Amino acid sequence: MRKVITLTTVALAGLCLAGCGSTSTSSSSSASSQQTVKHLKVGQTATLSNNGKKVQMTVTDIQRVDPSDNLVVDVSSNYKKAKEFVVYSYSVKSLSDNVSADDFDGSNLKLLDSQKSTGIVSSNRNSVTPDTINKGETINYQIGVGYYHTGDKAYIGIGNQQWSGKLNQ
Protein backbone atom coordinates (compact mmCIF):
# COMPACT_ATOMS: atom_id res chain seq x y z
CA MET A 1 0.00 0.00 0.00
CA ARG A 2 1.50 3.33 -1.03
CA LYS A 3 1.11 6.25 1.35
CA VAL A 4 -0.20 9.48 -0.06
CA ILE A 5 1.50 12.51 1.45
CA THR A 6 -0.16 15.86 2.00
CA LEU A 7 1.52 18.85 3.57
CA THR A 8 -0.62 21.67 4.86
CA THR A 9 0.43 25.05 6.15
CA VAL A 10 3.02 24.57 8.90
CA ALA A 11 1.40 27.13 11.15
CA LEU A 12 -1.99 25.41 11.01
CA ALA A 13 -1.38 21.70 10.80
CA GLY A 14 1.20 18.96 10.60
CA LEU A 15 2.32 16.40 8.11
CA CYS A 16 -0.48 13.88 7.57
CA LEU A 17 -0.16 10.49 5.94
CA ALA A 18 -3.45 9.26 4.51
CA GLY A 19 -5.20 7.20 7.13
CA CYS A 20 -2.50 7.69 9.75
CA GLY A 21 -3.39 10.89 11.63
CA SER A 22 -1.25 13.84 12.63
CA THR A 23 2.50 13.93 13.05
CA SER A 24 3.61 14.51 16.60
CA THR A 25 6.88 15.05 18.37
CA SER A 26 8.22 12.49 20.79
CA SER A 27 7.67 14.83 23.71
CA SER A 28 3.91 14.85 23.23
CA SER A 29 1.85 11.98 24.53
CA SER A 30 -0.82 12.30 21.83
CA ALA A 31 -1.40 14.18 18.60
CA SER A 32 -3.89 17.00 18.77
CA SER A 33 -5.82 18.69 15.99
CA GLN A 34 -4.31 22.09 16.91
CA GLN A 35 -0.54 21.73 17.17
CA THR A 36 1.76 24.49 18.30
CA VAL A 37 4.65 25.21 15.97
CA LYS A 38 8.02 24.46 17.57
CA HIS A 39 10.64 26.97 16.40
CA LEU A 40 14.18 25.67 15.97
CA LYS A 41 17.47 27.12 14.78
CA VAL A 42 19.71 25.59 12.12
CA GLY A 43 21.72 22.82 13.79
CA GLN A 44 18.97 21.78 16.20
CA THR A 45 17.33 18.35 15.99
CA ALA A 46 13.64 17.45 16.18
CA THR A 47 12.16 14.01 16.67
CA LEU A 48 9.24 13.31 14.35
CA SER A 49 6.90 10.37 14.67
CA ASN A 50 4.07 8.96 12.63
CA ASN A 51 2.24 5.68 12.98
CA GLY A 52 4.85 4.33 15.38
CA LYS A 53 7.81 5.24 13.13
CA LYS A 54 10.31 7.77 14.50
CA VAL A 55 13.11 9.80 12.96
CA GLN A 56 15.37 12.64 14.02
CA MET A 57 15.68 15.50 11.54
CA THR A 58 18.39 18.14 11.69
CA VAL A 59 18.63 21.14 9.36
CA THR A 60 22.38 21.58 8.90
CA ASP A 61 22.64 24.55 6.52
CA ILE A 62 20.65 27.13 4.58
CA GLN A 63 22.84 28.54 1.82
CA ARG A 64 22.39 31.23 -0.82
CA VAL A 65 23.74 29.87 -4.12
CA ASP A 66 24.47 31.06 -7.62
CA PRO A 67 21.65 30.54 -10.17
CA SER A 68 23.94 28.13 -12.05
CA ASP A 69 24.19 25.75 -9.07
CA ASN A 70 23.04 22.29 -10.20
CA LEU A 71 20.38 22.14 -7.43
CA VAL A 72 18.59 25.28 -8.73
CA VAL A 73 19.57 25.66 -12.39
CA ASP A 74 16.24 24.27 -13.59
CA VAL A 75 14.40 26.97 -11.59
CA SER A 76 16.71 29.83 -12.61
CA SER A 77 16.44 28.83 -16.28
CA ASN A 78 12.65 28.57 -16.31
CA TYR A 79 11.54 31.27 -13.83
CA LYS A 80 13.28 34.48 -14.86
CA LYS A 81 11.60 36.56 -12.10
CA ALA A 82 13.20 34.49 -9.33
CA LYS A 83 15.70 36.74 -7.52
CA GLU A 84 17.29 34.50 -4.92
CA PHE A 85 18.34 30.85 -4.93
CA VAL A 86 18.71 28.82 -1.76
CA VAL A 87 19.85 25.26 -1.00
CA TYR A 88 18.62 23.66 2.21
CA SER A 89 20.73 20.84 3.68
CA TYR A 90 19.29 18.48 6.26
CA SER A 91 19.77 14.98 7.65
CA VAL A 92 17.29 12.36 8.72
CA LYS A 93 18.30 9.61 11.16
CA SER A 94 15.89 6.73 11.55
CA LEU A 95 15.00 5.60 15.06
CA SER A 96 12.78 2.82 13.64
CA ASP A 97 13.10 0.18 10.95
CA ASN A 98 11.55 0.49 7.50
CA VAL A 99 10.86 4.25 7.37
CA SER A 100 10.01 5.53 3.88
CA ALA A 101 12.83 7.78 2.60
CA ASP A 102 10.32 9.47 0.26
CA ASP A 103 8.63 11.06 3.28
CA PHE A 104 11.67 13.36 3.66
CA ASP A 105 12.86 13.96 0.08
CA GLY A 106 11.80 17.60 0.19
CA SER A 107 8.37 17.31 -1.39
CA ASN A 108 6.80 17.34 2.10
CA LEU A 109 8.72 20.34 3.41
CA LYS A 110 7.44 23.89 3.74
CA LEU A 111 10.25 26.08 2.38
CA LEU A 112 9.86 29.83 2.93
CA ASP A 113 11.93 32.95 2.21
CA SER A 114 12.62 35.88 4.56
CA GLN A 115 9.10 37.22 3.93
CA LYS A 116 7.65 33.76 4.69
CA SER A 117 6.61 33.34 1.05
CA THR A 118 6.92 30.10 -0.87
CA GLY A 119 9.14 29.79 -3.92
CA ILE A 120 9.69 27.36 -6.75
CA VAL A 121 11.15 24.06 -5.56
CA SER A 122 13.69 22.49 -7.88
CA SER A 123 13.09 18.98 -9.13
CA ASN A 124 16.86 18.36 -8.92
CA ARG A 125 18.15 16.43 -5.89
CA ASN A 126 21.67 15.87 -4.62
CA SER A 127 21.65 12.07 -4.77
CA VAL A 128 19.59 8.96 -5.16
CA THR A 129 18.22 7.73 -1.86
CA PRO A 130 17.14 4.24 -0.86
CA ASP A 131 13.46 3.39 -0.60
CA THR A 132 13.64 2.89 3.15
CA ILE A 133 15.76 4.02 6.08
CA ASN A 134 16.44 1.45 8.80
CA LYS A 135 17.11 2.04 12.49
CA GLY A 136 20.42 3.84 13.01
CA GLU A 137 20.84 4.88 9.37
CA THR A 138 21.17 8.54 8.37
CA ILE A 139 20.45 10.08 4.99
CA ASN A 140 21.70 13.56 4.05
CA TYR A 141 19.41 15.53 1.76
CA GLN A 142 19.68 18.81 -0.16
CA ILE A 143 16.91 20.68 -1.93
CA GLY A 144 17.07 23.91 -3.94
CA VAL A 145 14.48 26.69 -4.16
CA GLY A 146 14.11 29.88 -6.17
CA TYR A 147 12.45 32.85 -4.44
CA TYR A 148 10.89 36.05 -5.77
CA HIS A 149 12.19 38.08 -2.81
CA THR A 150 15.66 38.60 -1.40
CA GLY A 151 16.56 38.61 2.27
CA ASP A 152 18.96 37.27 4.84
CA LYS A 153 16.82 34.57 6.46
CA ALA A 154 14.91 31.46 5.38
CA TYR A 155 12.63 28.86 6.94
CA ILE A 156 12.10 25.12 6.55
CA GLY A 157 9.30 23.19 8.18
CA ILE A 158 7.69 19.78 8.44
CA GLY A 159 4.75 18.95 10.63
CA ASN A 160 4.76 21.28 13.61
CA GLN A 161 8.55 21.82 13.47
CA GLN A 162 9.99 24.95 11.82
CA TRP A 163 13.68 25.77 11.51
CA SER A 164 14.99 29.24 10.70
CA GLY A 165 18.41 30.55 9.93
CA LYS A 166 20.50 33.19 8.24
CA LEU A 167 21.48 32.51 4.66
CA ASN A 168 25.12 31.47 4.38
CA GLN A 169 27.15 32.54 1.37
Concise structural overview:
This protein has 169 residues and is mostly beta strands. The protein has one domain: Immunoglobulin-like (Sandwich), CATH 2.60.40.1240. The protein has one helix at residues 73-78; strands spanning 5-6, 16-17, 21-22, 24-25, 38-41, 45-50, 53-64, 84-94, 99-100, 110-112, 120-125, 132-133, 138-147, 153-158, 161-166.
| N-to-C series of helices and strands | EEEEEEEHEEEEEEEE
Please give the alpha-carbon distance between the first and last residues. 42 Å
- Unreliable spans are 1-33
β-strand percent reads 35-45%
Mean pLDDT across every amino acid position: 81
CATH architecture heading: Sandwich
What integer value in Å does the Rg equal?
A: 16 Å
Question: So what's the CATH class?
Answer: Mainly Beta
Number of helical regions? 1
Key features of this structure:
mainly beta; 169 residues; disordered N terminus; 1 helix; four-stranded mixed beta sheet
Record the SSE blueprint:
Blueprint: E1 5-6, E2 16-17, E3 21-22, E4 24-25, E5 38-41, E6 45-50, E7 53-64, H1 73-78, E8 84-94, E9 99-100, E10 110-112, E11 120-125, E12 132-133, E13 138-147, E14 153-158, E15 161-166
